Protein 1
Amino acid sequence: MFGRCLLGLFVLLSIQCTNQQPSLSNKPVLKINENVMSAKEFANKLAMRLRELDSLAAKDPNVNSRVKDEIINSFIVRSLMIDWALKNKISVSDSEVETETTRIRALYPDDLAFRRMLAEESTSFADWQANLKLNLLEKKVSTEINKNVANPTEEEIKIYYNENKESFRKKERVFVQQIVLKDQARAEYIKAELKKQPFDVLAKKYSIAPESVNGGIVGWIEKDTVDFFSPIFKWPLNQVGDIITSPFGVHVIKITKKEPERIPTLEEEKPKIKRRIIELKEKSAYVSWIDKELRSSSVFKDIELISSLKIETRGSQNEKR
């Protein structure tokens, strides 16, 4: 049987199959029509995915099984996409790839940072660009699949709102303005100064919090989201309450607006509902597309060989089955 694959330390992403049948590393484990993934390619993808986890999770059999399933499903869908694009004459030009490459590289401070990213991902520029081309193709295919998805009707929006009304419920919230200081003595001083100077002026001058530049305006805070802010929901409007201490410092707080717990109206939620219904329709179209393509495709999975791929730490002895 296929021997264990040795993954060095997880951060190294180096899988080397050490067994007496090296040809098995090139044996197909997945084949969708004419699209093939070898055992070695699968093992490399597995290492890449497990590298993102801590060592205990990476060795967990359940985690390994889940990641393998994700790799299988991703390869199946991408293979179906490639074949469908070919049949429907959908392609990505070299100029489109170069334009997207330029856009992405501009997100990095310099070329060295971009190259460092490639090194961390253990991928060459050519492989990275090939994957980028597939991502662009996937977007084009997705757009084509969803082009007939209709916008929701007013009746659909109304039904969705009524059936999900409770999910739109908003918690009680308050609009917070604060001055954060290092100690209680300074807070007491600022609280006294508020009788002489405006809150925003003192916030800009003394607060150590980032929002000091905006006059101490934090914005809306919902009830039960920040523990040390719980008392402020009982305070009257436009009055400075008791000084509050938190891990961030000592807070002098004023509440300038309040909103009770409520369920927003249909009109308020309509844009969100419309987006959600479109998402559901697109998901349904996508699932139907996959089902249709699978029924007309040849799918091969070597589950035994995939299951035999194991992860070990560097320095462990090779094991044979």
Note: Residues 1-20, 315-321 have pLDDT under 50 and may be disordered.
Protein 2
Amino acid sequence: MKKYRFLIARRFTQLSILALYILANVYGINILMGNLSSSLVLQTVPLSDPFAVLQMIFAGAIVSFDIALGALVISIFYFILGGRPFCFLFCP
């Protein structure tokens, strides 16, 4: 069991995030709403995938302030936790 503790933690985190998305869409419990590219936590804190935002910028799209702020929030998490541990827990 100790051998699989990180795998179990990762799956638990992923399933919890997925459950929050489902609760928001099906039952209207708006803790985490949106999709895996751009989301809102508690209808106030924007979260956006920084790499998707860079792709939009290079494609010539006009990026709104909320999307840029969400990318900044996730980028700060990347720098605090490191890219690999963050993606280890949250990336599908």
Note: The mean pLDDT is 78.
Protein 3
Amino acid sequence: MSAMRETMRSQPEALQRILDDEAPVARAAERIRGRRVMIVGTGTSWHAANQGAWFLRAAGVQAWAVQAADAALGGPFPDPDDALVLLTHRGTKRYTSDVARLARERDVPVVLVSRIGNPEADLDTVPAETSSAFTASHLGALLRVAQLASALGAQLGPLTALPDAVAAELAAPATGVSPPARLLEVAGVGINAWTASEGALKVRETSYLATEGGWCEQLIHGPSVALGQSDALVVLDGGGPGAARLDDLAEVVSAHGSAVHRFTRRDLGELLSIFPLTVVVQKLAAEMAEARGTDPDTFGRDLPGRAEAWARLQL
């Protein structure tokens, strides 16, 4: 079994531990209360940053997400009257580290969400993951920001139901999606457009299958015309006012001859639907890797010449 699969199995227990660890959430919430909040991440954490901004806005917080590289290299950066929520799996990435340093130099209040054992973490998630395909640390970060938002007054839904919802999704049958000959497209609406983006990232980094993911409406307005019999579409439906538009997309793409797979998870409400739907795309990524015979844990470094090339690049 891959390290990715093993880590996925640990997620219900990890989420329950985070729910039981409430004291640091209250302290972190007071640090950012009454301020505008920039939430920053890279890669998977960029997706979590955008979903975290949705959570914080539900609490009435003026929150926006910024790529770590942009913030570090002169892009939008919080003022001392603002606050920074920084998401980092291990606390070692180049630009997230730069953002944390700059924020502290400029007296910007910081809430750092990171792995257990990171001495700078204000809110910890899970131990450092072995697989390069981050799963538990991603859900852990999402839950930490959901806790922050709830402490600030957001009505997100039953956070206590999340461990069981994730366990049920892990125990459910396989997705049934086969690798298409050419392209796998993943689409969502609202907050789940970012779940779709995360799904595309996970599938590409684990199976090396050409995959795109993101906004239903953006796909309708142009890119969908390129989908055909060699492609497949995965639709992520968590409910919400835009969900009916997914039906339009599915109908059109199906008429093109593409296989369409729909996953509907509405029981927890739109905002919290990202938790079971994230597990859906995690399973999808693991299954694509297994079907294609790739190692989901290595970030491609097991392929000839890759390790040497990546050794020259600071992540």
Note: Strands lie at 37-41, 63-67, 83-87, 110-114, 123-124, 183-188, 211-215, 231-237, 259-264.
Protein 4
Amino acid sequence: DHVRTLGGTEQKGLLGEGWHWLFDPLWKVHVDVVSQRDAWLTHDQLDMIVKSGVLKDRAVLMDLKDHQRGLVWIEGRFTHMLGPGLYAYWNGVRDVRVEVIDAHQVRFEHSDLKVIAKSGMAKQLLDICTVDRDRVGVLFIDGRYIDTLPPGLYAFWKGAADARVVELDMRETTIDVSGQEIMTADKVSLRMNALVTYRIADARKAVSSTDDVRQALYRETQLALRAIVGVRDLDVFLSDKDVVAQEIEQAVRRRASE
């Protein structure tokens, strides 16, 4: 069940299971006992042990570079994710498979993403986000527009680039512009309310043109109310309310399309 790692200032070799007699008159021999039941071999001198070559046929060795990540599957089940570094997994005791991923691709895509995303170690290495139903996510990487993402689960490598997903609701929505104090051309003060119904047609444009679509439409409706109602006398306004509503809609529609 165990393999004994023999070393002192210099790593010497591996001892298999059983009794071993070691000649050590100077008391410099140190033996670390590690269990092969744990497929992952961890040791503070793993680099020296690997360099000695004793693990060549005994373990799966992984030396992940800065741009590489590892997905570890044990007995066909995903267990954890690896960042850059040196790793060793025992052969023979359990079926170990390590999948190496190139993190140059900022967005991480995998058929088992839902399973992988639940791992605690994955959350240390990945920025994970979910675009909800009836929404889209506008993806920017390093400030550049990349794609518009449909509902679903997405992951991006931390540190590889600045990835940002702006989520937008694509359903029909209303804005209540209430309590607007407006003076008519004949100096009569009115308190007006307006209800704007809208739906986003171009998510990328909506995100790129303003920092807040809803607030921008609210502001444009306020301006349209003041501009269109403020040039009419009260009597004209009361007799032409439908016409006024149409003019306001056309003004807001024109600005919204911009």
Note: The helical segments are 46-52, 113-117, 120-125, 203-209, 213-229, 234-239, 241-257.
